[in-house]
Amino acid sequence: MALVPDVDEQASRDNARKVLKEYRRYARMVGEPLVDIKSPSIDGMPRTQSFENSVETKLTDRFNADLEYAAMRNALASMPFQFYWVLYYSFCTPAPMTAEEIAARVGLANKDAVDYVKRQALMWFAEAFKHGQCLKFRF
């Protein structure tokens, strides 16, 4: 038995992909104001008493989003230049780009080269995000 168990690379890349797919949502959450100010509306329906603190829930969600977003940015910032841009164009732009568009922007030969670099970059991200939280090990 080895001192450190083997890394299941496919499962680790899948975990990294799952985290990065939330990037846009967290970016929107971090950019939104803390308080939603709306005009009151009257619909004539009776209201029920709510026993949860909605302001506290919104604040907690906002703080958690801020922490996750910062952890993602830190993991992306620790990557080599080409890895960063491939993941950035794949997961962090307002609309995801195709592999052909990424290849043209990053200077890779074709879609297969982008897929290869993306697999390497996802492993790098899995190792860097929250000190390897995305890594999956085989025992």
Description:
By secondary structure, the chain is an all-alpha fold. 60% of the residues lie in helices and 3% in strands. The chain is built from 6 helices and 2 strands. It has helices at 9-20, 23-31, 54-77, 81-92, 99-106, 111-128; strands at residues 6-7, 137-138. A two-stranded antiparallel sheet has the order 1-2. Helix 1 packs across helix 6 and helix 4 runs antiparallel to helix 5 (99-106). The radius of gyration is 20 Å and the shape is extended. 22% of the residues are buried. The model is unreliable at 32-36 (pLDDT under 50).
How is the topology of this model organized?
Layout: E1 6-7, H1 9-20, H2 23-31, H3 54-77, H4 81-92, H5 99-106, H6 111-128, E2 137-138
Antiparallel strand pairs: 1-2
Please supply descriptive tags for the structure shown above.
139 residues, mainly alpha, two-stranded antiparallel sheet, 6 helices, 2 strands, extended
The number of helical elements comes to: 6
Shape: extended
Spatial gap, N to C terminus: 9 Å
Order of helices and strands: EHHHHHHE
Query: How confident overall, as mean pLDDT?
Result: 86
Strand content: under 5%
Number of strands: 2
* Main sheet properties: 2 strands, antiparallel
